[in-house]
Amino acid sequence: MEKMKLKLLYSDLKPELESIEKELEQAVDSESLLLNDASLHLLQAGGKRIRPVFVLLAGKFGDYDIELLKRVAVPLELIHMASLVHDDVIDDSEIRRGRPTVKSEWNNSVAMYTGDFILARALERITEIESPRIHDILSKTLIEVCRGEIIQIEHKYRLDQSLRDYLRRIKRKTALLISSSCELGALVSGTDEKTAAHLRRFGYFIGMSFQIIDDILDFTASDQELGKPAGSDFIQGNITLPILYARQNPEIYQMLRDNLNLDISDEKRLEIVRTIRTSSAVDEAKRMSERYLEKALKELDYLPKGSAAKTMRKIAFFIGKRKF
Asked: Which long-range contacts (CB under 8 A, 24 or more apart) does 294-301 make?
């Protein structure tokens, strides 16, 4: 239901998004049946496609050309998909979007090579654009995404990490790819530098807010709504913002420490989820998300008025209030 509400906000982009969906399927096509099945397994599980949406909306601030914009939107979504396949291996996740993960359906080796294959297809697609600047932005973003993944591994089960550690991690893991979606959509459409810079910053701030809300939902949404067990972040050792705030309570800190990096029962998992959900940590994390949201909205104030800015504003409000 929530995903449908989000799609309604950009329903006027439906034909373009359907076209991008077809190109995504073509991009992961190969002579290997195994690679095809594994790649399509994740692709057909759906997703918000928020990165292509931001590419298209940013393109409306310049000379909107769907053929050019697709050459940016498809690689960005492929990079996101590849990172999810790799993430599920690192986190040993069994379920994503309500379906078995690639590593669960096949194995870790198939998942790693599937992720690599999807990533290679992304790089292949971006070469269709003859712009060293766009290649430079995308490659630097990809480097930062990889650094974010490594940092996430290094920070696993570290309950003593700082707020700064967390924010720098989600910047690399999520915000920069959304920021680049906005910036590249603008640049490929020939917008002026000032507009592209505001869109880049909008994408960064909305990306930070988006990831914080994602981390909150891991404790406030149900298993069914999430399409995976609630509290998965904690079980996998990923210390998110709600956990960082909740640990300030000595009793909760002790409970978290006692159960970190253990094969806990479902009953204990739900007890931890309930404890975080009913603590003040959720509201504190929401306030942090709102601060980023306000910064994102402020960037929109500098952009030319029109339907694209209006839709971006609606999406920003939706992200701040989404329930799963």
From this structure: 295/201, 295/205, 296/201, 296/202, 296/205, 296/206, 296/209, 299/198, 299/199, 299/201, 299/202, 299/205, 300/198, 300/202
What is the DSSP pairing of strand 95-96 with strand 99-100? antiparallel
Q: Two tokens at 245? A: 């705030």
DSSP 18-43: HHHHHHHHHHT--S-HHHHHHHHHHH
105-110 mean pLDDT: 95
CA-based torsion, 49, 52, 54, 57: positive or negative: negative
Contacts of 134 by beta carbon, 8 Å cutoff, 6+ apart: 72, 126, 184, 187, 188
Mean confidence (pLDDT) of the chain:
93
Amino acid at 107: N
Please list the residues that pair with 96 across neighbouring strands.
Answer: 99
Predicted confidence (pLDDT) per residue in 199-256, tens digit: 999 999 999 999 999 999 999 999 888 888 899 999 999 999 999 999 999 999 999 9
Nearest one of 37, 45, 3 to 21, comparing CA atoms: 45
Q: Which helix (H) or strand (E) holds 100?
A: strand 99-100
Burial 186-209 (b: 16+ CB within 10 A, else e): bbbbebeeebbebbbbbbbbbbbb
**pLDDT tens figures, 35-70:** 999 999 988 887 889 999 999 999 999 999 999 999
Is there a contact between 246 and 281 (Cβ–Cβ < 8 Å)? yes
Q: What residues does 172 pair with on adjacent strands? A: none
d(CA 17, CA 48): 11
What is the model's pTM?
A: 0.93
